[in-house]
Description:
CATH class: Alpha Beta
CATH topology: TIM Barrel
Mean pLDDT: 94
CATH superfamily: NADP-dependent oxidoreductase domain
Strand order of the largest sheet: 3-4-5-8-9-10-11-12
Number of strands: 12
Helix content: 40-55%
Largest sheet: 8 strands, parallel
CATH architecture: Alpha-Beta Barrel
Distance between the termini: 35 Å
Strand content: 5-15%
Structural class: alpha/beta
Amino acid sequence: MKTRKLGRTGIEISTMGIGGMSFSNFYGPTDEAESFAILDAAMAAGVNHLDTSNIYGMGRSETVIGAYLAARGAEARDFFSIATKASITKHPDTGARFYDNSAEHLNSELDKSLVKMGVEQIDLFYVHRREAARPIEEVTETLAAMVQAGKIRSFGFSEIAPTSLRRAAAVHPVAAVQSEYSLSTRSPEMGLVQACGEIGTSLVAFSPVGRSLLTDHPLSAAQVKDLPFLAGNERFQEPNFSANIARTDRFRALAAEMGVSAAGLAIAWLISRGEQVIPIPGTRSAVHFAELVQGIDFDLGADDLARIDAVLPIGWAHGDRYNVDQWDGPEKYC
């Protein structure tokens, strides 16, 4: 398995990881047996980076991972490099969502995650969303103290701007920034990819297959209706959805010509973006996982990249990647 460095930590992780959101019911119903099958397939393939969060399925993803590690024993615990996140929470009285980057909240949530997954240390701990009113320098100091205490090996931030990354990195090395990045969402190329490369921070790319649009089996309109997040997402609402399916049909045809799954080609494209880029696709199927793994060893030359750009040029997608409510939290920078 090809590996990449996690920032400047010295930690080696597989070139592609696994996103644990799909171990909850976010993208459709799943069960523990199927999640276990995916993790078994990951171990067999050498894919050792596992990404989750305390809020995926309101803790279900972490619980499933913990059950898997308990069932498979020390071999699995030693194999996986685990990342999780915290800071998104709800007001106890109103239920309103907000972000808490305080030391008290982050430490409390981390402790809960350690218990749910049955591990003594997290390899990579993210602040899931920035609390706008709290200086990122203060938050970075909190995270650095966690490293010093041995509770985490490294830390990062999710969905922050390049300017925020530079401010944090001036306090302590930042191992990773997580951001949506794919052939359908290329905004990280307007500063974040470059900043990560300059600073020595990994860019962990979530939704690398465009929430199914960049696969051989995109979700159907009927499936989308049953998934609250996608049903409210502009790219999956008509007429945008039909336009995006039609456009990505060209990509599926190109992948078939090149002898690889569409998902594998989307992963290979991301891997080609730079040594700092690490995609973390999620899936509810071990069969689909095998399609994603194809991209790890599918090297792309200049002619291949030009063919991909011809069918999916930058800016091709119809609709924004988030709606107004979904944009609450991520930092816009371009």
